[in-house]
Write a structure and sequence with these properties.
Layout (H helix, E strand, L loop, with lengths): L1 H25 L26 E8 L9 E8 L7 E5 L6 E3 L14 E7 L1 H16 L16 H9 L25 E3 L5 E5 L4 E6 L3 E6 L2 E6 L4 E4 L3 E4 L2
Antiparallel strand pairs: 1-2, 1-5, 2-3, 3-4, 6-7, 7-8, 8-9, 9-10, 10-11, 11-12
Helix pairs in contact: 2-3
Length: 243
């Protein structure tokens, strides 16, 4: 038992503690009222002459929660459209939001990273499935959002990605809530469709997949390795390795 507790401390608590220290020194704790929510400049202005586009973004959340968690969202633009459409799930009011912020906006002042980028024909094929998945997302009523362990914004994004077959992409290990499952979802395919996930309601779990790699989750924190694109996955720090 002592060895097990020591292993858990090394694998989960030590990386989280060092990232907490780094996050505090960095000053990544902006309050929502003073944070920068403007465009991060990742997307050019939408034009009707541009092809279809799909982006999935993830950015650190604000204040102390940024130590261990990202918020993710989905952006689409159909061919011929002169505007982007952004889908988020948030924890106040009705959870599913459309165009609540700039498509590539900072989140609590934190610049988003690109999780998925589809353009042209690939985006055109994906957009109808994305719209259908957003409309069918089951946790959209008042009071259905739970920041921890889920369902939350990352549960929503994982749900949509799981309905886009053939995509070799995975949310960051710090996308807390991505592994949440309802009580009857103990065993399920991974969102990429390349493996399986055991989950105890998001409190603990094991993921084995070619795209997702090997992930052990405990109370929402994820540790693991990526074999396809060699990397470590550490609580707080996220993915460290090949981009």
């Amino acid at each position: 038992m002592r060895r097990l507790l020591l292993l858990l401390a090394i694998v989960f608590l030590l990386p989280l503690a060092t990232h907490a220290l780094w996050w505090t020194v960095k000053g990544g704790a902006a309050d929502w009222s003073v944070a920068d929510w403007s465009s991060a400049g990742l997307l050019a202005p939408a034009r009707s002459s541009e092809p279809a586009l799909v982006r999935v973004y993830a950015a650190r959340v604000g204040r102390w929660r940024g130590i261990f968690a990202h918020h993710s969202w989905i952006v689409i633009k159909e061919a011929g459209a002169a505007r982007y459409t952004r889908y988020d799930v948030v924890g106040w009011g009705l959870p599913v939001r459309t165009d609540g912020w700039a498509a590539d906006g900072r989140w609590f002042g934190n610049t988003p990273e690109t999780v998925l980028a589809l353009d042209g024909a690939a985006a055109e094929r994906a957009i109808p499935a994305i719209r259908a998945a957003v409309a069918a997302y089951p946790h959209r009523g008042l009071g259905s959002y739970r920041a921890w362990p889920g369902p939350n914004s990352n549960t929503f994004t994982a749900y949509v990605l799981a309905r886009l077959p053939g995509l070799e992409t995975a949310l960051p290990p710090t996308a807390l809530g991505k592994d949440w499952t309802p009580p009857d979802g103990f065993l399920a395919r991974t969102p990429s469709g390349t493996g399986f996930r055991l989950s105890l309601g998001g409190y603990a779990g094991l993921t084995l997949g070619w795209v997702e790699g090997i992930e052990v989750s405990l109370l929402g924190l994820v540790a693991g390795i990526d074999l396809r694109r060699p990397a470590l996955k550490l609580p707080g720090w996220g993915r460290i390795g090949v981009a």
